[in-house]
């Protein structure tokens, strides 16, 4: 594979993972917790970035070296474990995709005044259209990159108009007034939890990038993916902080829209529509692609009809939203539950990294093993705490 083609694939995988993470839940969670924690939310972002990088590097490296998708690795480790992991991933992916479709409907409602339901149906058709073309993989990569740049650029503009107290944000990032475990679990779950961290790894595998010789490229792609998602998170946090610091209360029904409108007026509200739609529809594509990648190796029929299964996944998500809907608190809940999937999936990958029947003569770096094990323990502990303490309080408020 020529160098330019390889770099294009690595960048595509990075943006697929990042835009899978940057969805309606991402926007909602970031603004919700900024309102709650103000500048101290910077500390939560910092800790989540460190955890995200450790999780992502472990998982992408092991998938690359083994040359197998995560479910096959898990089944090689313990028969049946891959089916269990896939069930968790697909269920979480479907739940998230309902929220993604809802966000796309909201974005079109803001932009064109159509009902969220009609907007969701039209957006679902756009996502489905990507997988109906012959070169679906290339189109998916370019689609994610194009809208990813648009989202970040528009959010930077709104951040500057909000005039956030950047100095205070820097200080509180390293010396917070309070530490919110639910916020950390939710952010990690929304960035590398569930299906998201596997999106880029499975995309690279499908493109034929595997083996120890590809590790340097994969490391760069994995870190770039976290970097892209984190840049968006930081700019959105600063935009929200600028609004909150002025004493403006955010609309609990739609916190991110409040930020964009308060910072940049009617134009800001339209910008929110573009950002929300872009975030939502790229996440729809990423969630559908990655969720199906977790079941396609279980059946030759699914593998040979992968595009049809992806299209069906998107169609089901769209219909469920049209019939049921998705409130803000459910998006936060799903992010937290996705954070609980991470200790399981990462734990499986770390154990597999030390089994020669799976990775051959590859030696997984000791520091990555220790870092990964630490993340598993911390995320499991904070996840259980958030479920028993934080989430009941969230729904009681």
Account of the protein in words:
- The structure is a single chain.
- This protein has 17 helices and no strands.
- The protein has one domain: Amino acid/polyamine transporter I, CATH 1.20.1740.10.
- The longest helix is centred in the last third of the chain and has 39 residues, at 255-293.
- 82% of the residues lie in helices and 0% in strands.
- The protein is an all-alpha fold and 397 residues long.
- The protein is globular.
Provide the fold topology:
Blueprint: H1 3-21, H2 24-37, H3 41-66, H4 70-77, H5 81-112, H6 116-130, H7 136-162, H8 166-174, H9 181-192, H10 196-206, H11 215-245, H12 255-293, H13 300-304, H14 306-323, H15 328-352, H16 356-359, H17 366-396
Helix pairs in contact: 1-7, 1-10, 1-11, 1-12, 2-9, 2-11, 2-12, 2-15, 3-8, 3-9, 3-10, 3-11, 3-15, 3-17, 4-5, 4-15, 5-6, 5-12, 5-14, 5-15, 6-12, 6-14, 7-11, 7-12, 9-15, 9-17, 10-12, 11-12, 12-14, 15-17
In short:
With 397 residues, this protein is mostly helical. It is 82% helix and 0% strand. One of its GO terms (molecular function) is cadmium ion transmembrane transporter activity.
Structure characteristics:
single chain, manganese ion transmembrane transporter activity, 397 residues, mainly alpha, Amino acid/polyamine transporter I, transmembrane
Based on Cα principal axes, name the global outline.
globular
Oligomer: single chain
What structural class do you assign from the helix and strand content? mainly alpha
Number of DSSP strand runs: 0
Sheet bearing the most strands, described?
none
In DSSP terms (H or I, runs of 4 or more residues), the helix count works out at 17
Helix content: over 70%
CATH architecture: Up-down Bundle
- Kindly report the average pLDDT value: 88
Gap between N and C termini: 54 Å
CATH topology: the name is: Amino acid/polyamine transporter I
Report the C-alpha radius of gyration, rounded.
20 Å
CATH class: Mainly Alpha
What is the CATH homology-level superfamily?
Answer: Amino acid/polyamine transporter I
Topology as H/E string? Answer: HHHHHHHHHHHHHHHHH
The structural domain count equals 1
Low-confidence stretches are none
Strand content: under 5%
């Amino acid at each position: 594979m020529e160098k330019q083609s390889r770099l294009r694939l690595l960048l595509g995988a990075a943006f697929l993972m990042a835009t899978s993470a940057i969805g309606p839940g991402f926007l909602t969670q970031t603004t919700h917790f900024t309102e709650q924690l103000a500048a101290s939310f910077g500390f939560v972002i910092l800790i989540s970035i460190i955890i995200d990088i450790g999780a992502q590097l472990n998982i992408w490296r092991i998938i690359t070296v083994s040359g197998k998708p995560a479910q096959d690795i898990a089944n090689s480790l313990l028969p049946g474990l891959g089916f269990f992991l896939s069930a968790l991933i697909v269920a979480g992916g479907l739940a998230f995709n309902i929220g993604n479709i809802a966000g796309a409907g909201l974005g079109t409602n803001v932009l064109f005044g159509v009902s969220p339901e009609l907007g969701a149906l039209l957006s679902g058709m756009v996502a489905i259209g990507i997988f109906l073309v012959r070169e679906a993989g290339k189109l998916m990569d370019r689609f994610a990159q194009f809208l990813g740049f648009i989202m970040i650029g528009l959010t930077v503009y709104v951040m500057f108009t909000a005039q956030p107290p950047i100095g205070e944000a820097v200080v509180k990032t390293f010396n917070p007034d309070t530490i919110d475990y639910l916020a950390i679990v939710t952010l990690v779950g929304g960035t590398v939890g569930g299906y998201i961290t596997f999106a880029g790894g499975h995309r690279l595998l499908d493109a034929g990038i595997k083996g120890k010789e590809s590790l340097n490229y994969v490391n760069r792609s994995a870190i770039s993916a976290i970097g892209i998602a984190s840049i968006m998170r930081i700019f959105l946090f600063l935009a929200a902080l600028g609004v909150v610091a002025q004493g403006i209360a955010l609309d609990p029904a739609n916190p991110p829209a409040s930020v964009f409108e308060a910072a940049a007026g009617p134009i800001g509200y339209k910008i929110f529509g573009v950002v929300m739609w872009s975030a939502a529809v790229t996440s729809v594509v990423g969630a559908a692609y990655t969720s199906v990648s977790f079941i396609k190796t279980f059946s030759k029929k699914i593998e040979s009809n992968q595009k049809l299964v992806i299209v069906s996944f998107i169609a089901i998500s769209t219909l469920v939203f049209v019939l049921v809907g998705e409130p803000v608190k459910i998006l936060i809940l799903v992010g937290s539950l996705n954070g609980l999937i991470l200790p399981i999936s990462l734990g499986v990958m770390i154990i597999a990294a030390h089994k020669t029947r799976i990775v051959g003569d590859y030696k997984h770096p000791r520091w990555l093993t220790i870092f990964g094990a630490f993340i598993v323990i911390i995320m499991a502990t904070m996840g259980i705490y958030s479920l028993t303490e934080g989430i009941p309080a969230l729904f009681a408020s």
